[in-house]
Amino acid sequence: MKNRLLTMIRGWLWLLSLVFLVLVTGCGNPSVGDSMGVQNTTPPGGSQRAASISATNNSSIMSNLPRLEGKATIVMTVNGSPITIEVDGIAAPITAGNFVDLVNRGVYDGVSFHRVVRDPQPFVVQGGDPQSKDETVPTSRLGTGGFIDPDTSQQRYIPLEIKPRNADEPIYGKTFDQAKINVAPLLSHTRGAVAMARSALPDSASSQFYFALSDLPFLDGNYAVFGYVVDGMAVVDQIEQGDRIESAKIITGLEDLQN
């Protein structure tokens, strides 16, 4: 019994150490040349712009971002099999709106899953870096890219958006610890959760996302969950590093996307 307990404790400590090594992804200037999840947890220079979201007029910045006013259903095809995701714009309108907008633009078609962590315990499958469409981009750079808005020629960043349970509105730009919130989020990191990857800066998410391979409660209040896999989790369980999203399509809810 004692040995089993020690094994479990070691496993959870290992997972905690991966929070900053796996989910801390570069969302800025790819010329920095390091994948922040592997070599360096310091955000690249391009991400510093995202840091200003919290310090400026949140309402004016967020008014220019897509919003989802309701729920949407997305089907991703990976290795010839569908993964059905329910995206929740009621609990996470900006995060969900960003994701649905990127699906609608075809941003995820052809991108790869550049990071898969299953050992010693199931953790995450992460993808969504548009750079991965270009086979000439070194694998060491994958995890440093985000969506470049063609209208502005700038990378789109979205604020960290997490809604506390029983709250009327989400909080923006702060983790629950930073905001001194002691309740659970409405959308938690249970197995099958879909959430945004980001750098160490709260407001640095762009296009990269991850699937939770198991319950990950230590991520709650720190990363923005915006939906869940409702069918096809067995497909997610089989994804390997380098596998690609063949297509991502909006099945329902496009009419609730506000740009």
TrEMBL record:
UniProt keyword Membrane present: no
Function according to Swiss-Prot or TrEMBL: PPIases accelerate the folding of proteins. It catalyzes the cis-trans isomerization of proline imidic peptide bonds in oligopeptides.
Tell me which EC number(s) this protein carries: 5.2.1.8
Q: What class of enzyme is it?
A: isomerase
Q: Which domain of life is it from?
A: Bacteria
Family per record: Belongs to the cyclophilin-type PPIase family.
Annotated source species: Limnospira indica PCC 8005
Can you name this protein? Peptidyl-prolyl cis-trans isomerase
Q: Which PROSITE patterns match?
A: CSA_PPIASE_2, PROKAR_LIPOPROTEIN
Q: Which reaction is the catalytic activity of this chain?
A: [protein]-peptidylproline (omega=180) = [protein]-peptidylproline (omega=0)
InterPro entries per UniProt: Cyclophilin-like_dom_sf (IPR029000), Cyclophilin-type_PPIase_dom (IPR002130), E_coli_cyclophilin_A-like (IPR044665)
